[in-house]
Amino acid sequence: MMRKLSLLGIAMFTCLAGFAANYIGDGPDAGRTGWVKDEKVFNKTNVKTMKLLWKVKLESVTRQMHNLFPPTVVENVTTTTGPKEIAVVSGITDDLWAFDTATGKQLWHKHFDSTFDENAAGGRGGSTLCPGGQLATPVIGPGSGAGKFTLYSVSWDGRLRQVNVADGEDMALPTKFMPPNGKPWSLNLVNGVLYTATSQGCGGVPNEFFSFDLATKKASALQPAGGGMWGRRGVAVASDGTIYMGTGDGHYDPDNKTLGNSIVAAKLDDNKQLQLTGWFAPPNVNWLWHRDLDVNVSPMVIDYKGKHLLFGTSKECRIWMVDRDVMAGTTPPFDKHQEMLDRTVQICNPATRYDAAGVWGAMATWIDPMGQLYLAVPFLGPLTDVYHSPIEIGKPELGGVAVLKVEETGGKWKMTPVWSYGDIDQGDEAIYMNGILWVNGAGEDTYQSNPDVAWNEAPRKPPIGANNQTGNRLGNSRHATIYAFDATNGKLLWSSGDQITSWNHGSGMTAINGKAYIGTFDGTFYCFGVAK
User: Fold this and answer.
1) Is residue 126 exposed (0-12), middle (13-18) or buried (19+ Cβ within 10 Å)?
2) Cα(78)–Cα(73) distance, rounded to whole angstroms?
3) Which of 70, 212, 370, 417 has the most CB atoms within 10 Å of its CB?
4) pLDDT exceeding 90 applies to what percent of the chain?
C-alpha cells in the first residue's frame, strides 16, 4: 500500500508514446551487457530536459542495508483500463509493487506468504552480507498472448512465484525452486528456463548455480566448488545456452576440481540438468583469493568480429577479455583456462583494498553505429597512477566510470582507454542506449570496517542502531545520484544532482522509454523523464 504519492508536472513531462522497448530484467539482456538495443525515446538532445516526474514513498521494510531493487518495465500491458506501460518494483521483504509509469499511480501491491520460519534461520543469516528476504531482482517473460506478461520471482522461502503483470494475481501455485533464506542474484530467463546463482553461504545454502525449466518443472543445481557466486545482474547467458558466473573467494586448484575466484561456465544437458562446461581463472587467481579481491561482478557475454567474447573483473579493478571458445572444456591440460585476449592495467583501487574500492556494481558493453565495441566500468574510490585516458574529466575520489574501446589488429586484441569521469559517489551500475551512458552513484558507505581517520579529516558519523558493520554504514551513507553521459567523450548531459535524498545498496537503476528509475533505502521510488 502507498503512503504518499508526489506527482510533479505529469502534464508537462511524460514518456513519448509509440515504439517502446521493454526492460524485462536486470541487465537487461541475457548476456548482461547493460545495452538497451531497442530504445526509441532517449537521445543525446532530449536527455538534457530530464525532470523529476513523480516519486512514491512505499510502505516497505528494510533489512540490514537492503530495501528496493531496480524495476522491470514492460510496455503495452493489457489491463482493464486499457494498455499501459507498467514498472514493477520488488522489495526485500517479499513485496512487489506495480506502477503506471505515465502517472505514477500504484496499480497493485503483492506481499508473498511464506513457508520459512525466520526464527529457525541457519547459516549466515541476519547480517550485512546475509540479510535474508527476496534478494533476486525478478524477470518478466511473455504471457499467453499479446499484451500479457508474467513476472517471475523467488521469495524468501525459496519458492518460485509467477505473477500477472497486469493485476498482480498468481499465474501458478508457488513452486519449490531452491532452499530458503539463501542469497540468490537477479533472475535470467532464456528459452523458458530461469537461472540464478547464490553466494555467501547465506542460510546454509551452498554457493551454486540454479535452473528451473518452466515447461517440465525440472530444477537443477550445480556447485562448482568455489566461493560465493555473486554478481549484481546474476548469471550471463550466451546464445548457445551456456551460462557464466564468477565463483568468488576460494582456492583455485583445477586438478582437484576447486575453481575459486574463477568465471565458471555451465549448460543444461538433455535431462535439463546443469553440467560444468568450462571456466576462466585470472593469472593471479590465488593472490586475489588471499587478498579478498574476489570476482564479484556479473560477467558480460557479447559476440564481435567472429569472436565469442566474455568480459569480467573483480575488486582488484582489472578487466579481462576472454575468448569463450578457449575457456570451454573440462579435461586436462588446464593451462588454457587462464588464457586471455587482453587484460587491462589496474584501473582503480590503488591500495588493493577489499572494501570501498574496486568494481562492485555492473559494467556495460555495446557496439556503436560505426561498428566499434566499447565497455564501461563504474568503480569505487580513486583511479590508479598507471591508468590514463585521452579524456580525463575530474579526479575520482569516491568513485567514477572508465570507458574503453576494443581494438583488433592482425589477430591481436586490446582494450584501449577512451575517457574517464569522476567524482561519482560510489560508481555503481552502467546502462547504454542511443549514444547515452547512464551511471548511478549509489551514495552508500562501503567501508566494511571503520577506516582510519587523519587528524585533519572530519570524524565519521556515529552508527545507526548497533555499532557493527551495518550500523556504521547506515550512519555514514549519503545519497544516490543518476548521471547521463555522452558515451563517446564523457560529456555530462544530465544529472539528478541532490534530488534523490537517500542511497541504495546492492540495487542500481533502470532506464527505458524516456524514463530513468531508482529505488532508495528509505523506501522512495523515483521516476525521472524527458520533456514531451
Assistant:
1) middle
2) 14
3) 70
4) 86
